[in-house]
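Try this one yourself first.
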């Protein structure tokens, strides 16, 4: 911006100086020496005032119109650090984004799996600060190089530290990664399975809500959103029930909330919950044309999680436990069987999962730079068939233990190189081990 200002001011200054010199030459021919000296000083003062006005105007333009650069990205209001840049503006446009490209190689008995590489995500954050109290923020995502999604789009109404509101397509404040999922800010090439299978990240729905906090100690969020669509539930959980803001059925609504407590800057304890109907009053055609249409039960769905984290002196510790409950799971399974000829398995009454991970930055032991090299280990356990409705048996291939070991290397804060080895061990059957390699960035 400073270079731009110099290039703009320099020719203006040159022109004004030339004009003053020419005028002074004219004065030299017309008046005595004293008059010429006073006229020259007056014009120098006028020139200085003009340059001052130009500098002030350029600074105002920079603040209000130029896309800002934030060398130190920090999360605000629970949003991803890059998505949070718009809150730092006094006014105007904010751009940010992130991306990740991965390779997966299968090890040992690969089964039918083939090694693959994937431009998994390319994301652009677009925000605009209309005023101190109204802020727009959004995420436009391209997945697998050819699928475009609106990940979130929300208007924030900023009133007080403890009471603000938002409306739009909202990221649900569940778990660690549903809101903050930029690749430099989680370990491993892939997000934890627990935060995909039980908490169906990335999870977003249309709604409104409140958020705020008290100092840095307590933060909360409370939203009302459209409910899930139970016609997408299955043996693998509720992930298929996300409506993603696209012509979402809104016969049933849900409430989602979160509270985080940070007794010290290094520690965090929190919990989140979701509760709402998922049947959406649907009545779908029976696969047997001779039988009547099938009505879905309300299928009230509850998800909660407990989470904790510690980060200090290069050490990272994180743990999360979550459960999901589906009422009327037996009736819902029968309705799914009657309306979808491809439906297999059964929907569980209860699902659960949890994970714990540890990482440590060893780079400060090697060199005193801003780089980081963080070996990590993560253990996960999840079961999307934990407790079944009567007359339905569990699919034990859905009960899985997972071990992931690897490292994140950041040559600079905003770029990460990842490598890990993942072993998943289902109670019934086998899953091929993986070697994963990834690169990610955020800006």
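Now uncover the answer:
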């Amino acid at each position: 911006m400073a270079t731009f200002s110099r290039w703009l001011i320099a020719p203006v200054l040159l022109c004004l100086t030339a004009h003053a010199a020419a005028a002074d030459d004219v004065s030299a021919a017309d008046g005595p020496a004293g008059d010429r000296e006073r006229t020259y000083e007056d014009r120098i003062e006028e020139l200085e005032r003009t340059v001052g006005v130009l500098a002030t105007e350029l600074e105002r333009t920079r603040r209000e119109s130029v896309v800002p650069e934030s060398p130190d990205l920090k999360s605000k209001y629970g949003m991803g650090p890059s998505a949070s840049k718009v809150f730092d503006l006094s006014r105007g446009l904010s751009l940010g984004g992130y991306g990740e490209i991965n390779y997966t190689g299968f090890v040992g008995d690969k089964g039918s799996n083939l090694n693959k590489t994937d431009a998994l995500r390319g994301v652009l954050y677009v925000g605009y600060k209309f005023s101190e109290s109204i802020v727009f923020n959004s995420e436009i995502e391209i997945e697998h190089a050819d699928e475009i999604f609106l990940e979130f789009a929300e208007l924030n109404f900023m009133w007080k530290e403890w009471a603000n509101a938002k409306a739009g397509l909202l990221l649900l404040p569940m778990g660690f990664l549903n809101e903050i999922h930029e690749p430099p800010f989680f370990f491993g090439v892939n997000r934890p399975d627990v935060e995909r299978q039980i908490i169906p990240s990335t999870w977003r729905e249309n709604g409104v809500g409140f958020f705020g906090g008290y100092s840095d100690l307590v933060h909360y969020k409370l939203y009302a959103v459209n409910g899930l669509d139970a016609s997408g539930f299955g043996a693998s959980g509720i992930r298929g029930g996300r409506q993603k803001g696209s012509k979402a059925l809104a016969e049933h609504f849900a409430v989602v909330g979160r509270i985080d407590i940070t007794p010290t800057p290094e520690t965090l304890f929190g919990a989140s919950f979701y509760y709402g109907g998922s049947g959406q009053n649907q009545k779908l055609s029976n696969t047997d044309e001779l039988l009547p249409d099938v009505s879905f039960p309300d299928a009230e769905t509850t998800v909660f999680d407990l989470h904790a984290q510690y980060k200090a002196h290069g050490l990272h510790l994180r743990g999360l436990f979550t459960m999901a409950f589906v009422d009327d799971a037996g009736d819902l399974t029968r309705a799914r069987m009657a309306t979808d000829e491809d439906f297999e398995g059964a929907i569980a009454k209860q699902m659960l999962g949890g994970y714990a991970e540890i990482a440590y930055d060893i780079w400060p032991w090697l060199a005193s730079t801003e780089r980081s090299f963080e070996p990590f280990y993560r253990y996960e356990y999840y079961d999307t068939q934990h407790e079944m409705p009567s007359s339905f048996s569990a699919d034990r291939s859905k009960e899985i233990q997972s071990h992931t070991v690897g490292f994140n290397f950041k040559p600079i804060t905003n770029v990460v190189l990842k490598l890990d080895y993942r072993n998943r061990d289902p109670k019934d059957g086998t899953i091929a081990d993986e070697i994963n390699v990834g690169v990610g960035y955020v800006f």
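Discussion: The chain is about 20% helix and 45% strand. Confidence is low (pLDDT under 50) at residues 1-31.
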